[in-house]
Amino acid sequence: MPTVSPTTTIPLSRGAPSLDIIDVEGLADAAARAFANDPAGATAYGTSVGYLPLRRLVAEWHDVDEEQVLLTNGSMQADAFLFDELARPGTQVVIERPTYDRTLLALRQRGAELHPVALEPDGIDTGALEALLAAGANPTLAHIIPNFHNPAGYTLSLAKRQRLVQLAQEHNFIIFEDDPYIALRFRGETHPTMLSLDAGAGSVVYASSFSKTVCPGIRVGYLVGPADLIAAIARRATATYISPGEVSGAIVYEFCISGALERSSARVRDALEQRCGRLASGLARELPEARFVAPDGGYFLWVELPDGVDSTKLVAAAAEHGVAIVDGDDFVADGRSGAIRLSFAPVTPEQIDEALPRLAAAVASLQ
Amino acid sequence: MPTVSPTTTIPLSRGAPSLDIIDVEGLADAAARAFANDPAGATAYGTSVGYLPLRRLVAEWHDVDEEQVLLTNGSMQADAFLFDELARPGTQVVIERPTYDRTLLALRQRGAELHPVALEPDGIDTGALEALLAAGANPTLAHIIPNFHNPAGYTLSLAKRQRLVQLAQEHNFIIFEDDPYIALRFRGETHPTMLSLDAGAGSVVYASSFSKTVCPGIRVGYLVGPADLIAAIARRATATYISPGEVSGAIVYEFCISGALERSSARVRDALEQRCGRLASGLARELPEARFVAPDGGYFLWVELPDGVDSTKLVAAAAEHGVAIVDGDDFVADGRSGAIRLSFAPVTPEQIDEALPRLAAAVASLQ
Q1: Do B218 and A73 touch (CB under 8 A)?
Q2: Closest to A20 (Cα-Cα) out of B215, B242, B40
Q3: pLDDT score of B9
């Protein structure tokens, strides 16, 4: 059990798992099998769609044609390709408020016109989105993180998934279903993806990743979407890097088909459930004025701060007290968040227990 | 010894090695060591500069500071980042004629104004470049493939390297030294890089890759350049994909430090020397009217065709005769090349022996 030195900063900041929940042995085994079973496929130049057996496997999982799948160097590269393809200066894009900070940055860099819509504990406020559309907004894209949202930890309800797909079909926009955390549900039932609810109508592009179930350093993500859009993005990827990592793709493939993926995901979920539980109970105890909804999976918990506590000042005060946290303001396109993001993925339960009194002291120092 | 069926197309087209010269066992060993020796470093999110021990090793090889090195998802991704950083619509870029077709495409996509300068057997025509500069050209960048050029197989002489660096320093442009084949010299002495001749003056950005010495599917390349430019590209890379493959970087690192890189490179060079020799002697025998300069390394041989033989028609005729070759026109920004590119990397000596009478028959069919 790791001990926690009072002088060591406890990282509740980064959306990354601690090493103890990475199946390093499973990865080493998968690498050995990748080189033994398919030396030509793993070592040669592939094409920009990525390692073909893994592409086929992903297509099977999502019940789509292979031509609808493109593997990428992590799912952020998938986002970048999709935005390069669809977001021009002035392109209207619906985003959640809050949303993933790197998505905000990527869309702003491309000059997109952002329409932030409030995120509720059961997902984006579809009523507000309808009102926005009725008022004349004409988005090309709506970026939605459906499961265990980053930063909020919230999950989109089935009813709202259905409504969003209807709206996309009626108003002719594409839902970008950004779903890296789907396999990390530790409580409750998994909802169908909007990709599946759309049933091939072409209104949804789906992205996910093996960063949270295999490991971040492997850098394998993927896009699923209409075949013509995927083909266009594949041409873009060819011109960018010829192919994503074929060795990485082959390792992930062997990891998946050997059963390691299921074992590893179960282990990760168990650890996350324990860490999340400890964080939620600790928050209730140490910061009773803070408001939060304990997530059913994923890495993150969004804490709305007591009135009068400034999130930016709290980040600095927490750092002085030995806790790294992220300012909720980083995740909103406009105005203030009144919140912070806590990640329970990189820390042990013991570290969480140690961190919360520090965080409470930091809050108290501002009151 | 592989037999060659007369109905099977022999690929003298692709710049990729055959599987028999890839050290698959060395790769498997390197992967096992990567996970055993540095599980945290290999599996975690890195930063956009890539796997740090490999970055340090590359910095040592080139005798530069670590801050001057950025690892990428293959060296084409390095090119893409550099062009994104430096090439705007209208940016003047000197290119060789012929040059790598994907470089042409990448620069055209960014709207660069291209200045093609003739490539001679000892490298770019520096006299023509001087005349171009004297006439008022004001390039930001000069793209140079110094060793075993793709497509020409030619190598830049030491005198021309020195002259190019002088010109870059005097006229304030950056030489992009694109050097993926440097380790593949099977004859003669390696010239110093222009990066080293520039001696830290900031006039050279250097790119290379492990695709030709480890394997293409690993997708690990790198850039070396002025620290401020590398830092700007690192920010761009962060916003694109967080980090390149850390698992891949760790495998390459272990491959390098174990001695496998030297063994593998020697094996590749021996095979390429034999293949190149067989191709050169076969060409002299079967196509005595064709002109070429046998390279001292690399993958490629550039064949200037007999008068009246159209390169584009020859590609089609060769395909009908069971040989895949690449039209030299693909590698020039303007006009015709009168040439084809042959790659000896993906084929055995026996395949080369079989291919040349087919190619000769294809040429004869056009005369």
Answers
A1: no
A2: B40
A3: 96
